[in-house]
Amino acid sequence: MGRRGWGCRLPVSPIASTAVLYGSLALFVSILHNVFLLYYVETFVSIYKIDKLSFWVGETVFLIWNSLNDPLFGWLSDRSFLSSPQSGPQISSPEVVLKRLSALSRSGPLLALSFLAFWVSWAPPGIQFLLCLCLYDGFLTVVDLNHNALLADLALSADDRTRLNFHCSLFSALGSLSVFLSYAVWDKGDFYSFRLFCVTLAAGSALGFATVTRLLKSRFQKEARVCQDEALKLKELSIGQSSLTQEEKPVTVGQYLKQLSKHRNFMWFVSMNLVQVFHCHFNSNFFPLFLEHLLSDSISASTGSILLGISYIAPHLNNMYFLTLCQRYGAYAVIRWLFLVKLALSAAMLLAGADQVYLLCLFIASNRVFTEGTCKLLNLVITDLVDEDFVVNRRQQAASALLFGMVALVTKPGQTFAPLIGTWLLCLYTGYDIFDRSSVQDTAAALTISGQASAIVPLRQGCFYLLVFVPISCALLQLLAWSRFTLHGRRLQGVKALRQGAQHGHLLDVKAI
């Protein structure tokens, strides 16, 4: 996989088998994380009876930790790579992959263990809530950063990276089935069955991480030894050159941030991705609200649950089709098309109006599917940014995990902006306060008794305008930022060629001497 990008030969194992193993790691994360997202709040609020103050303090601390731990762990993982090819010892690509796999073999089982800590009461609810969130997110960050970094480290060509991402989407879709299985055992009155279900998921995830990382390690350990032997021989040949080359100091945090601030494509990408993260979480946060106020009178509860299920699984399945388009037209073009489709669908829904029930069902589901599908493609673009950062700053090795962490640092505030801006807009337009349900219900009852039930119609209209104007605004902002992004076409091909040449360059220099 990515044979041309490495300084020594890759393992001769088939690309497909390595891609399957790499993709299966997404399964072991997905089966846990989907259940976590659905039930952790309900568990602490309804079962452990956490108070409101403790809940918001925990969420606030979690927000800060969630934003900062990505660049922190990325820096700890990749700080040794932040130097030019001439400074410090050469680190072969198989050694980098082994380093990522070692981190996954440790953090994967710990992620499963921290997942279990949610479902058993072992401390006062406020303390347990805070500790569980921070521990779980810390291990999840390590897993995500190293797994995403492998996407850039295992392959250089767009086709190979697309194949890797394809298998991630396939296994993530399979992992989403845990959501449907969880419905059968979720019972707030009898928590035992759900706990047993979570123990089963955690055991399967931990065992899967241990097995798959061990299999992948075995594929690269032999190659790493070969690269080390080659490096020793080359060092002997080039020992006379050491006095001619001035050793450079490792890059500091300040220098790295300065380099990143000059990386124009990175800046335009995170601007676009901040809006994307906002839109993804806006859809997730307000999905139940839209169902309640736009469709509850027209569709059954089972239809609503089907729409919810589709919104979880369809993005992964749809992404596999998007990835085949990426192989043909490139990720930049496909993402641009998705922005245009989002804009067109939202404008069409606005013109159709809020009374078209079937169109509303289709739009609510497709809006989430296309938005989440775009998110799944962005990792391919980040790997291209890793290549450009490697070439422009003459890295010793690509700082993959660190760049993924810096992207997360800038874009994760979109998770907080989504509910804040959404609820503010809804309250501004309709006067509806989502946190004060009792007063709204009392007002609605009073209006109905006095024969003025039509006065609550603006709430439905406000939800409709929120549903269509948010994606229109997001699409326009993203198209503007995306039009300034230049890492595609010939420039991308040139960057990949330069990275391949740079990773072979030190061999050519020694031979020339």
From TrEMBL:
Report if keyword Iron is assigned. no
Gene giving rise to this polypeptide: MFSD13A
- The source's domain of life comes to Eukaryota
Respond yes or no to whether keyword Ribonucleoprotein is given for this record. Answer: no
Protein species of origin: Esox lucius
Matches recorded under SUPFAM superfamilies: MFS general substrate transporter
Q: What is this protein called?
A: Major facilitator superfamily domain containing 13A
Q: Where in the cell is it found?
A: Membrane
Q: Which UniProt keywords apply?
A: Membrane, Transmembrane, Transmembrane helix
Taken from the record, one Pfam family name reads MFS_2
Membrane topology, as annotated, equals: Multi-pass membrane protein
Signal peptide as annotated in the record: none
| InterPro entries with a match to the protein in the record | MFS_trans_sf, TMEM180
Task: Give the UniProt entry's GO cellular component terms.
Answer: membrane
> Where does the sequence pass through the membrane?
20-41, 164-186, 192-216, 266-287, 299-317, 329-352, 464-482
